[in-house]
Design goal:
Length: 209
């Protein structure tokens, strides 16, 4: 028997882009319940492993529970095999978790991205569907962000170009989507590093845009 959840309007904007040497993830910081701003400093990019992260769009508690499970699975796999888990394997586990709860859905749309043998981005929707992407946006502001991304994204962009595009895509949603706001978090993942940009760096990028 299918049991539906009460309808609660939520919103956000998250973006994932591959570039020549890695991936960039960006997200706003506002958490909403309907038209109420519940929190202004939510971290919507969760680090899962040394070179893998996940963006959160949907019900934050659902996404946080999935992130905790994925971190445990990644650690167990590394202990058992001595190797890091691939980005696709992490996304597949997330897909399996979401699909298993389809009768009482986990209300999430996830971007799981990182670098294993190459930069990779996967999305998982709230039915458990998994797709690989070169660039993607999720959340209530995604139609706005997607318009800019599709107009300017190209394969083999430099890191600076990809970061600038991701920041400007989130900023465009900040201006037009009421559920998106309170600033921008940015994470850049390459084969050799996992870097979180600070507010001052994001501000400089916006001034140059």
């Amino acid at each position: 028997m299918y049991v539906s959840r009460p309808k609660v309007l939520k919103g956000t904007t998250t973006v994932g882009l591959t570039f020549r040497d890695g991936v960039v993830l960006a997200a706003d910081k506002r958490a909403t319940v309907g038209y109420y701003i519940a929190h202004k400093q939510v971290k919507k990019i969760a680090r899962l492993a040394d070179r893998i992260a996940m963006t959160i769009s949907g019900v934050v508690a659902d996404a946080q529970a999935i992130a905790d499970t994925l971190r445990a699975e990644i650690k167990y796999y590394h202990m058992y095999t001595g190797r890091p888990m691939s980005v696709k394997s992490v996304a597949t586990i997330a897909s399996t978790i979401v699909f298993a709860y389809r009768t009482l859905p986990l209300v999430v749309q996830l971007i799981i991205a990182g670098y294993d043998t190459a930069p990779r981005i996967f999305t998982v929707d709230w039915f458990g569907t998994i797709t690989e992407e070169r660039c993607v946006a999720t959340g209530s502001g995604s139609p706005i962000a997607t318009g800019l991304i599709e107009a300017e994204y190209r394969d083999a962009m430099s890191a600076d170009e990809a970061i600038s595009l991701a920041v400007r895509a989130i900023n465009s949603a900040l201006k037009r989507d009421s559920a998106t706001g309170e600033g921008i978090d940015v994470v850049v993942i390459t084969r050799d590093s996992y870097v979180e940009l600070g507010p001052a760096e994001v501000s400089k990028i916006l001034k140059r845009a």
